[in-house]
């Protein structure tokens, strides 16, 4: 079995990750623009991002939209899943485009995820499908009353 080895972040990596957290340019070639900002090439930026993702420093690069303004409905889902089925249920949930933040937790409700759908009907269909998965014992849909958005950025020195 091979051992997973993470490399140490270079100064360049830290500068790149700091920029990505809040300054990804909105343009046709954002990584080329990042390269200009970091005095390197688009190819070098993309190569380092690939490495950082493979090494576990980076999970995803993406935007955040106000889903409600775009007509989407969101809910936080808490599932009670039989231990031997958690991996299969999590994998099934991850296949839904609107499922995010799928995490195993300690406690009676041991698998939690958020779900964004374009309609209540789509949400109901997905939740019925999830409820029917082998090992799912209980599902709670926890609608929010008020939206809070916390912008967390990590300053890497």
From TrEMBL:
Domain Siroheme decarboxylase AsnC-like ligand binding: start-end pairs:
69-149
Could you say which enzyme class this protein belongs to? lyase
Catalysis performed (reactions): siroheme + 2 H(+) = 12,18-didecarboxysiroheme + 2 CO2
Its EC number(s): 4.1.1.111
Q: Which GO terms describe its molecular function?
A: lyase activity
Alphabetical list of SMART domains matching this protein: HTH_ASNC (SM00344)
Q: Which controlled-vocabulary keywords does the entry list? A: Lyase
What family classification does the UniProt entry report for this protein? Belongs to the Ahb/Nir family.
- Quote the PANTHER family the UniProt record gives: SIROHEME DECARBOXYLASE NIRL SUBUNIT, TRANSCRIPTIONAL REGULATOR, ASNC FAMILY
Q: By what name is this protein known?
A: siroheme decarboxylase
Q: Which organism is it from?
A: Selenomonas infelix ATCC 43532
